[in-house]
Write a structure and sequence with these properties.
Elements (H helix, E strand, L loop, with lengths): L5 E4 L3 H11 L5 E7 L6 H5 L2 E6 L5 H4 L1 H11 L3 E3 L9 H10 L2 E2 L4 H8 L1 H10 L7 E2 L6 H11 L3 E5 L9 E3 L5 H16 L4 E5 L5 E9 L5 E13 L2 E7 L6 H18 L3 E9 L5 E7 L6 H8 L3 H9 L16 E8 L1 E2 L5 E2 L2 E2 L2 E3 L5 E4 L6 E2 L6 E9 L2 H14 L1 E3 L5 H9 L1 H5 L6 H4 L1 H4 L6 H13 L17 H4 L1 E7 L2 E9 L6 E4 L7 E10 L4 E7 L2 E10 L2 E6 L5 E6 L16 E3 L4 E6 L6 E2 L4 E7 L2 E6 L4 E6 L6 E2 L4 E6 L3
Parallel strand pairs: 1-2, 1-4, 2-3, 4-5
Antiparallel strand pairs: 6-9, 7-8, 7-9, 10-11, 10-13, 11-12, 12-15, 13-14, 15-22, 16-17, 18-21, 19-23, 20-22, 24-25, 24-31, 25-26, 26-27, 27-28, 28-29, 29-30, 30-31, 32-39, 33-35, 33-38, 34-37, 35-36, 37-39
Helix pairs in contact: 4-5, 5-6, 13-14
Length: 663
């Protein structure tokens, strides 16, 4: 039997590290590849060898199949594992590997091509006896033909990119009036993600469960399934929280869905690990939607309840080993839930975030697959996924509580992220009851996105900044009894969460005690027992605020201060503008410059000079971290200049459009 001696991992960051971790016990030499932006990444450091594919900022480095094959040949790699994303579902990689005599850790080119084309996949699934959703597919159909098909199917309908997955190029259309605009948006996103803007239509099943079946199949014709995962918690068709098993699936339904998935495996002569995805409606009927011919981001929850290493089985199967497990050998123990920790700001419509990692400490009692390092940088060039926080428990409720606790204990500071959002999801009573569908996040957005006041964080920031240093326990003892408090009161002008705070901090007679006014109406806040200690990441502060004990981590970033309270996932960024001229303040002043909120590429310019725009009207669309983001006007204004065009690569805070007041 052939064995894989040297494995090239054609991916980056956390999934590359996951594959490296699985390959080492099998005695494989490992090879990493990287773009210039990833030269210092952990997967590069941890592999036995590493080779640069090309420059940043382009994604193209990891998409260059010719370069991957060239590197594999040059270093003597006899196998390539593509992970997920990038070229993992590109049949051209499988073909190139076969031509070069290199083993692909994955299925055949034909299986990949068949399942990558949504219409073809549906035809094969129907022929194999899987239930499918009514729809329409004609790659050459005009806009008019697609609109007519939507009318025949009946609204609501779903527009889906033919050439991809992961929610890219998908749009829900509720009425005929919005079909054309949603079609344009779906095609544009599909073109950006897959270089293919063809779409198909399906009847939309509102608020279903999204259930997927994990399969394993060897090269000898034997296949099994590893049960289901529930991926119903989605935003913009992007999975956020996944779990196994599903609270909506019993043993009988699991067996039927597993049987259907294995029919598709047989019909496609599938080899390796794959996932067959279904929609489950309220009546218990399920419908095939697609097959992912690769490892899934959420594979870890299945590993947790089965005790199997799916990535190692991928490698063993690729080497020709027989799958020794029979279906009856698969046992499910307990419950596992995963939260996707992403560099995005839920408070600003999940805008992608970039910046330095000032502090990072995953919870010791959870499995956290990641590639985050203190001092590293989150760039705009790749997906916003930073880490996968995975817990396992004896019951589903206990798993919910464990994930909430793990997120509370996870320390990530330097930019906004979604840890608090994830924590609220797994703590929500509807989620904990297991009674939700794909509409859960939208239905409960008010609860999940409610802003935090973060008053204690503001208090600690004010005291720290008033002292001028976070390492002193208090101000000089010689001043403690000085009677002229007016000379010691420190007026501060702080900016945080889009608000300007005028705060006054005064020391009290007790050492390490302060009085603060300006943060709340009424009596001043009292801080006492202030102890600030330097730690590896920054400053550890412990104090009483109005008699209640609190503990914080403080980190400086240029003129900003990050404050994170212990057991609170969200950190507060406070800008000290005390010495900044108030003439530069923007409060109440017309802002003529519309700037880019992130690095990215211009995909649409929707206004022209002289045009009057209303609040909320989209001016420009920007593609970043593989998603399209709409930059809208905040006030009524007239477009003075448009300084960008489609295709331009933008930097953070670069001007997009100049506005002028309506005369």
């Amino acid at each position: 039997m052939p064995r894989i001696r040297k494995l090239l991992v054609a991916n980056r960051n956390e999934i590359a590290r996951r594959i490296l971790r699985a390959a080492r016990p099998l005695g494989m030499t490992t090879v990493a590849v990287y773009s210039e932006a990833d030269a210092k990444a952990l997967h590069v450091q941890e592999a036995d060898e590493a080779y640069c594919l090309g420059p940043a900022p382009s994604l193209d480095s990891y998409l260059r199949i010719d370069k991957l094959i060239e590197v594999a040949k040059a270093c003597g790699a006899d196998a390539i594992h593509p992970g997920y994303g990038f070229v993992s579902e590109n049949p051209m990689l499988a073909t190139a590997c076969a031509e070069a005599g290199i083993t692909l850790v994955g299925p055949t080119a034909q299986a990949i091509a068949d399942m990558a084309d949504k219409a073809r996949a549906k035809q094969i699934a129907q022929a194999a006896g899987l239930p499918c959703i009514p729809g329409f597919s004609d790659p050459t159909a005009s806009v008019e033909a697609l609109m007519q098909a939507a009318e025949r199917i009946g609204y609501p309908v779903m527009i889906k990119a033919l050439a991809g997955g992961g929610g890219r190029g998908m749009r829900l259309v509720l009425t005929a009036g919005e079909f054309a605009s949603q079609l344009h948006s779906a095609q544009l996103e599909a073109k950006n993600a897959f270089n293919d803007d063809r779409v198909m239509l399906e009847k939309a099943i509102l608020n279903p469960r999204h259930i997927e079946i994990q399969v394993l199949a060897d090269t000898h014709g034997h296949a099994i399934h590893l049960g289901e995962r529930d991926c119903s918690v989605q935003r913009r068709h992007q999975k956020i929280v996944e779990e196994a098993p599903s609270p909506a699936v019993n043993a009988e339904l699991r067996a039927r869905m597993g049987e259907a998935a294995l029919k598709l495996v047989k019909a496609t002569q599938y080899v390796g690990a794959g996932t067959v995805e279904f929609l489950l409606d309220a009546s218990g009927a399920f419908y095939f939607i697609e097959m992912n011919t690769r490892l899934q981001v959420e594979h870890g929850v299945t590993e947790a309840i089965t005790g199997l290493d799916i990535v190692q089985w991928q490698l063993r199967i690729a080497a020709g080993e027989r799958l020794s497990l029979q279906q009856d050998d698969v046992r499910f123990t307990g419950h596992s839930i995963q939260g996707r920790l992403c560099a995005e700001d839920p408070a600003r419509d999940f805008m992608p975030q970039t910046g330095p990692v000032l502090a990072w400490q995953p919870d010791d009692h959870a499995r956290t697959d990641h590639a985050v390092t203190v001092g590293g940088e989150v760039s705009p060039w790749y997906d916003s996924l930073l880490a996968k926080v995975i817990v396992h428990a004896t019951s589903r409720l206990e798993a919910c509580e464990r994930l909430a606790d793990a997120l509370n204990r996870t320390v990530l500071v330097g930019f906004e992220h979604n840890a608090l959002y994830l924590q609220r999801i797994c703590s929500h009573p509807v989620f904990q009851a297991g009674e939700f569908g794909t509409g859960f996040l939208a239905e409960h957005a008010d609860d999940l996105l409610a802003p935090q006041a973060l008053l204690e964080e503001q208090v600690v920031a004010a005291v720290y900044l008033a002292q001028g240093s976070g390492t002193e326990q208090c101000w000089p003892a010689s001043m403690a009894g000085f009677s002229s408090t007016r000379a010691l009161v420190r007026p501060l002008r702080l900016e945080t969460q889009g608000r300007v705070l005028q705060v006054r901090v005064a020391p009290l007679s007790d050492a390490g005690a302060f009085s603060l006014s300006g943060l709340i109406d009424g009596d001043p806040l009292v801080v006492s027992n202030w102890v600030a200690t330097p730690v590896a990441d920054g400053v550890d502060v412990r104090c009483l605020i109005n008699g209640q004990f609190n503990r914080f981590l403080l980190l400086k970033q240029a003129t900003a201060l990050w404050v994170k309270r212990h057991l609170n996932p969200q950190a507060l960024c406070v800008q000290d503008n005390t010495l900044v001229s108030t003439a530069s303040a923007s409060d109440g002043v017309f802002q003529p410059l519309v700037k880019s909120p992130m690095n990215g590429k211009i995909t649409q310019v929707l206004v022209q000079p002289g045009q009057t725009v209303e609040p909320g009207q989209v001016l420009v669309c920007l593609e970043a971290m593989k998603m399209e983001h709409r930059i809208a006007a905040k006030v009524v204004a007239v477009v003075d200049q448009v300084v960008v065009q489609v295709g331009d690569q933008m930097g953070l805070n670069q001007t997009l459009v100049l506005l002028k007041p309506v005369q």
